[in-house]
Amino acid sequence: MRKIIKNLIVILSFLVMANPVFAQKVEKLAVFPVDVPVQGTSITLYPNVLQLISSDIVNTLSKSSYLNVIDLSSSESLIESAGLKKKYNKLLYDYKTTYSINNDTSALIAKKMGANKILFVSGGFDIQSQLMDRGLLYKLDIPTGQPLIPHYRLNILLTLLDPESGIIIWEDTYSKNFKASNFPLPSQYFSENVVSTEKIKKFSYELAQKVNLKMENTFASSQYTEVNSNIVSTKDNITTEDIQPTDGPMTKDGHFYSTNYEYPLSKRMNNYKNWIKQKVLSD
Length: 283
Known about the structure:
Layout: H1 2-18, E1 27-33, H2 49-61, E2 67-70, H3 72-81, H4 85-98, E3 100-102, H5 103-113, E4 117-134, H6 136-139, E5 148-162, E6 167-179, H7 194-219, E7 233-235, H8 262-282
């Protein structure tokens, strides 16, 4: 009787793993930091902050089982080797200046990279005019010699796009005020302001954790609905190009360029089957 029960467990396990309903689709994600220079914008304070935040997002999402994330270095290499650098920069420029996404360009780049989702990371520090905030003692009507505290605000806009359909799956904005006193020397380099760098790293890490949770909620089910974006819009182009995606090579962190997720799924299935067999034989 005990042997029959074990055999039933093994059979049911095979059926569950083989059923496509239970097979989790692995999304291939490309992260695009929107760090192109635009006339009239400020780049005097930490212009690489988007690279920092994007790297933290990539590192955090790479640990998930439902996402295959292309690292930033590999993304740049793929775009460069495909001769799409100019189109890529134009895509980021339009996003930053008009909050619009060209569907044809994003689909073309994603296809070449083997990605089926794109996360745009945009924003930066607002230092055109320091934000003035009243201190706690002032708010409590306690006399103080410093009623106003100047701040710099870091604003981040994230947009998750399905390039094949042109649907904006979700978008979110995040912001945080940093005391100007933490920036004794407003600079382009993190190493010159230790206090502010530590606070920015903490904000970046916490933001990556929030994105990870949002991604998990988004892809926990196999379907999602179209978002009526209040910020970013998509637009179609008249002409399209057909470029075949790269297949076979792997990134430096061991990710496949191809959108074919059948291999990692079958590998997990085989590992699970072998584990079941070993458990049965050992008993």
